[in-house]
Amino acid sequence: METESVIETQDLTKMYNGQAAVDRLSFRVKKGEIFGFLGPNGAGKTTTLLMLLGLTEPTSGTARVLNLDPTRDPIKVKTKIGYLQENMGFYGDLNARQMLKFITELNGLAGKPADERIDSALEKVGLLDEASKKIAFYSRGMRQRLGIAELLIKDSKIAFLDEPTLGLDPDATNRMIELIQSLCRDKKITVLLSSHLLHQVQKICHRIGIMIKGRMVAQGPMDQLAKEKFGVGKDAYSLEEIYMKYFQEA
Amino acid sequence: MHSLVTIIKKELADHFSSYRFTIIFALIAMVSLITAYMVGLNIRKELEGVAKPQFIFLMLFTSSGTVFSLVQFVAFFGPLVGLILGFDTINRERNEGTLSKLLSQPIYRDAVINGKFLAGVALITIMMVSILLVITGLGLIILGIVPGVEELWRIFIYLIISIIYISLWLGIAILFSIIFRSTATSALAALAVWIFFSFFVSIGANILANALTPQAGAADADEILWRAKVVKAFTLTSPMELYTDATATIIDPMRKSARSIVTMGPMESLSISRFSGPLSLSQSVLIVVPYIISLVAITIVCFAVSYTVFMRQEIRSL
Fold first, then answer.
1. How far is A78 from chain B, CA to nearest CA, in Å?
2. Separation in Å, CA B41 to CA B45, B59, B141
3. pLDDT score at A206
4. Can you give the residue range of the structural domain that contains A66?
């Protein structure tokens, strides 16, 4: 039996000044999986995420997120998606607790249940001790973990993680990867992960989509991609080799 | 609705903890205090041994102490407060990446801009109310006279007009913060607009009038009247002039028209000396209503433009 898909796009296109940033993109993300969203900078990954969030209107084509149309129902879609943008976008002059409180209020949660959620999320990402420190003084890794805490308090069904490991040291990267895996495993959150760390992606992603110049050139599980390109199984080729092969051909 | 309230709360908290606001507030409080004190002393001196005229209390606001009267001060520097509060509203959040964080929460986009505008208006209200209260309090102490009901009404109407006026500049500043990516550019653009309307419009009006009526200064009454009309029509494009006109008869009941047109000068002074009674409140309001409506209209148009631009802007560029 095929698992249901939580994200499905059909010929999704976004034009900027006559140039297609996203070009007839069709892909699916299945429930409960970690989908590795790969591609060079400027391939249109972020634009795709913004369209799925309903923050940008597609020029043509359709997108369905949890059976909702993000363009028509942006509020409902945004309630269910947690989006970690590349630069995190936290208010530096707030502390972690204030920031999360602000987020809960924007999500219509208040009072004691909200406070409890904030505490348990902070604990989960290991920031409870530093919750009253201003975010401006946080290290990059701490900010990223705070982003994960935000996903937890929102109780998101889907997480869009845009370069969550960018600029992190090896230790922080591993910690982040573990957190992402636990999101998927414990909270049953579907994760759409965009990253350049192919080695990490290879380790945790169930399926992979490679996007180049606005087009999805390949999607599927690792071994399937390897077979398509090289005719051998997963063990023989790393994701990096597959990726470079696609990249050179595009 | 809850998101709008949340954003207003956040904005207010931000404003109150910012140095920028503290500095403006200190500056304005200081100037208004000093002005009120000087004016109060002057009035007291002048009134010694003279029968108490009506509406002494309002003189606290209209007569100039050392340099400025309070009304002039608000007309001139009030815009600056609005601009400083608003010039980086949207573009700062955009540059720091917090705008997309905000918009990726389940809120409508207009909640962001409405919340920010309303928080600014709330702040302006708090500021104006406290300044007027300080002056009223000082007036009570220095003059020893209690303002009458009508005076209080006039002060209240003046307060409302002032809030609208400063909010207009807040709206202009927010518009620039939406259009320009850099906060420095939006600040400079907003300042340029302020300088243009504060200084150049009145100069330009005279130049324009000179161009249209080459015989300026002639004794021909029609021509002088025509010239005055040209000057007035042109200066009315400036919100500062609109505001001055709108508050003129409200805060100064002895005045009979929104402004003293050159040609009306002698006639007006004649009529005042002949019927030196003050205008009733309803009559004062009647004279300035068109100006108030124009002021409100410009404010709404300005906010509506910001609103539309913001709602249509592509998030990709955020």
1. 5
2. 6, 12, 11
3. 87
4. 5-91+157-249
Q: Do B104 and A90 touch (CB under 8 A)?
A: no
Contacting residues for B280 by C-beta, under 8 A, at least 6 apart: B253
Mean pLDDT for A19-43 is 87
Report the chain B residue with the minimal C-alpha distance to residue A103. Answer: B105
Residue of B6, B99, B108, B310 to mutate, testing the A interface (most A Cβ within 10 Å of its Cβ): B6
Residues of A in contact with B315 (CB under 8 A): 50, 55-56
This prediction has a pTM of: 0.86
Residues A174-178, mean pLDDT to the nearest whole number: 88
pLDDT (tens digit per residue) in A36-77:
888 888 888 888 888 898 888 888 888 888 888 888 888 888
Query: What ipTM was assigned to the predicted interfaces of this complex?
Result: 0.85
Give the dihedral sign, CA A140/A145/A149/A150.
positive
Would A65 be classed as within a structural domain? Answer: yes
Residues 106-165 of B with CB under 8 A from A: 106-108
Burial of B49 (0-12, 13-18, 19+ CB in 10 A): exposed
Q: Is residue A180 included in any domain, yes or no?
A: yes
Rounded-to-integer distance, Cα A38 and Cα A209, Å: 6
How many domains would you assign to chain A? 1
Structure tokens at B316: 């990709």
- Return the amino acid letter for B236: L
CA nearest B94 in A: which residue? Answer: A89
On whether residue A113 sits in a domain, the answer given is no
Report residue A242's pLDDT band, with 50, 70 and 90 as the boundaries.
Answer: confident
Q: Does residue A115 lie in a domain region?
A: no
Using the Cβ of B315 and the Cβ atoms of chain A, whether some distance falls under 8 Å is answered with yes
Q: Is B99 in the A-facing interface, judged by CB distances under 8 Å?
A: yes
What is the bridge-based pairing of β-strands A81-84 and A158-162? parallel
Closest CA in chain B for residue A105:
B6
Token representation of residue B301: 């148009």
CATH (domain of A205): 3.40.50.300
Those residues of chain A whose CB sits closer than 8 Å to some CB in chain B are: 16, 21, 46-47, 50, 53, 55-56, 75-76, 78-79, 81, 83, 85-93, 102-103, 105-108
* Chain pair A-B, CB pairs under 8 angstroms: 66
- Closest alpha carbon to B76 in B204, B215, B187, B195: B195
